[in-house]
Design goal:
single chain, alpha+beta, 3 domains, five-stranded antiparallel sheet, 13% strand, binds zinc ion
Length: 377
């Protein structure tokens, strides 16, 4: 029986021979490129040169029935020759594969929506930050690496050399935003492997062979019942429909987080510029939510001041007054919670110090003064 090390060596030899034949280079050079630290595979197994060559010759989307490759360096149907007869070539394909492994694949070819040309620019900008080997990526190389990974690769439009690649549009948008201004403000679409790739790329560039492997987590985004309800309301043909459509777009565009609760939604709106009408529409939406889900947790507001202090008392000894100030829902006033702890004089109270909110919100029933929470009237 051969040792694992021996099998590895054999695989490298076979790969080097295949790459030598494909690139018409010499064996020693091909072997060096294949064993480069940049080619080791960061977010997945090392790409095999034999698999890359066979993808080009047998992939139903990239080769004709007789095995003639239809992919060139400049794209589908392209005729320009590959620029792979150098160390960078093989490493670049492996780095593109690691970049593409960041994204959740779409289910099936029909959902492939991202142009290979757009994607190659994103890959260049991301990988180019770490190494010159991938500062320029050809359209054909991007398509080739995607096909080798088994991603949906489809949909050539007439006369175009670009194909559509099946990866999550939302995650790709996040990466584009990360490389541009303004940066994303919410991170629910951040690719799960990004931190690991960002940490490992410089080490690979420094020549390190990594001992760590990336454990791919489940990347399912958890949408709250409240978010799903808001999504349903976005089909309404009124101002609540307009407001919730804007909210959904904000989640899709990574402009703000997903609202787990009405409290979150208030904070989200407070964090972005909005019209008074948007606020009123939100209150109407939240009101509708509590009408359909009366058991849903009522809303707390963030504290902005704690004005507690001692009090000389009224003859029976000193005490304290605790006055907690919270931001009201509209943001123009306050909710006050007050506790007078003075011997012979104890009182606990809360109230809206905002005329607008006083008319629109009330304290939820069956809660103590300290445990107050609010719902729309
Ligand atoms: Zn208010």
């Amino acid at each position: 029986m051969s040792s694992p090390n021996h099998q590895d060596n054999r695989a490298v030899q076979q790969d080097a021979r295949a790459w030598k034949a494909f690139t018409q280079s010499n064996y020693t050079a091909a072997r060096r490129w294949i064993t480069s630290p940049l080619s080791q595979g960061i977010l997945g197994p090392k790409l095999s040169a034999r698999h890359l060559v066979s993808t080009l010759e047998t992939h139903p989307g990239l080769a004709s029935k007789d095995g003639t490759p239809c992919l060139g360096n400049d794209g589908y149907g392209g005729s320009s020759g590959w620029n792979l007869n150098n160390e960078e070539g093989f490493a670049r394909l492996c780095l593109i594969a690691d970049f593409l492994r960041l994204f959740t694949p779409t289910s099936g070819d029909d959902n492939a929506k991202i142009s290979s040309y757009e994607l190659k620019h994103t890959a260049e900008r991301f990988l180019g930050q770490y190494c010159t080997e991938a500062a320029y990526i050809s359209n054909g190389e991007l398509i080739w690496a995607a096909a080798a990974l088994g991603l949906p690769v489809t949909g050539q439009s007439y006369g175009s050399k670009n194909l559509l690649i099946g990866i999550s549009e939302a995650e790709h948008r996040y990466m584009r935003q990360l490389l541009n201004d303004p940066a994303p403000r919410a991170h629910h679409h951040r690719p799960a492997g990004l931190d690991f790739l960002q940490e490992m790329l410089p080490r690979c560039v420094n020549g390190e062979i990594l001992s760590e492997q990336w454990d791919k987590p489940s990347t399912v985004i958890e949408y709250s019942a409240f978010h799903l309800w808001l999504t349903e309301q976005s089909r309404r043909n009124d101002r609540v429909g307009d407001f919730t459509s804007d909210y959904i777009a904000g989640v899709e565009m990574n402009e703000h987080k997903i609202a787990q609760s009405p409290s979150d939604l208030l904070e989200i709106l407070a964090g972005i510029s909005h019209s008074p009408d948007a606020y009123d529409s939100m209150v109407e939406a939240i009101s509708g939510w509590y009408a359909t889900s009366p058991d849903s947790e009522p809303i707390r507001r963030p504290m902005i001041e704690n004005e507690s202090g001692s009090h000389a008392g009224y003859g029976a000894g000193p005490g304290s007054i605790e006055r907690l100030v919270f931001r009201c829902p509209c943001g123009d006033g306050q909710i006050i919670e007050e506790h007078e702890n003075i011997p012979g004089f104890r009182e606990h109270d809360h109230w809206f110090d905002c005329a607008k909110c006083k008319g629109e919100w009330r304290f939820a029933e069956n809660r103590t003064v300290r445990d107050w929470a609010i719902i729309p009237r």
